[in-house]
């Protein structure tokens, strides 16, 4: 089981290596996600407090599937089964995020830990300027690994800001 203490803090401001900076911040945002979910009661994890209707548990699952879509299904062109597994009926991208009644925070943490480790291996095995392999996600103009990593960082940063607001509204906890 992963915990926030298992994950690193923000990379040092003296870091200049692009790969270390990108992967360091990705791990930092993953850690921040776990910290923001820590201490949330189960009923609050499944409750929407914003008009858009998503829950903290759905956001967590969504960010895990974002990595699956961009690195496994996208960059590596792997068959991942359902790359839209964080979505509602039929897993369609236009459907809202969904978490099944049988899915738990611990189960989603296990999926995230597995996904994050797979992502680390993918990134370690490729150059930053390498283009994604042709597949279902990228057929004509594949994205580069560095672009994908920047995209993942902005996804995490944006959604962690959303989660800060939800957490403060739900129980008064203020994010760091």
TrEMBL record:
Pfam families: MST (PF04978)
UniProt cross-references to InterPro entries, sorted A to Z: DinB/YfiT-like, MST-like
This protein's name: DinB family protein
Lineage of the organism: Bacteria, Bacillati, Actinomycetota, Actinomycetes, Streptosporangiales
């Amino acid at each position: 089981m992963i915990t926030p203490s298992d994950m690193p803090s923000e990379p040092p401001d003296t870091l200049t290596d692009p790969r270390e900076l990108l992967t360091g911040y990705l791990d930092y945002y993953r850690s921040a996600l776990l910290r923001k979910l820590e201490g949330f009661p189960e009923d609050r994890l499944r409750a929407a407090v914003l008009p858009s209707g998503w829950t903290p548990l759905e956001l967590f699952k969504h960010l895990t599937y974002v990595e699956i879509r961009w690195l496994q299904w996208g960059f590596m062109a792997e068959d991942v089964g359902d790359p839209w597994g964080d979505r509602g009926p039929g897993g369609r991208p236009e459907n809202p995020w969904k978490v099944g009644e049988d899915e738990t925070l611990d189960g989603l943490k296990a999926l995230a830990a597995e996904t994050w480790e797979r992502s680390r291996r993918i990134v370690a095995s490729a150059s930053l300027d390498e283009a994604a392999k042709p597949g279902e996600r990228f057929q004509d103009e594949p994205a580069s690994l560095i672009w994908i990593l920047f995209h993942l960082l902005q996804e995490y940063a944006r959604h962690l800001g959303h989660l800060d607001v939800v957490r403060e509204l739900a129980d008064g906890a203020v994010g760091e």
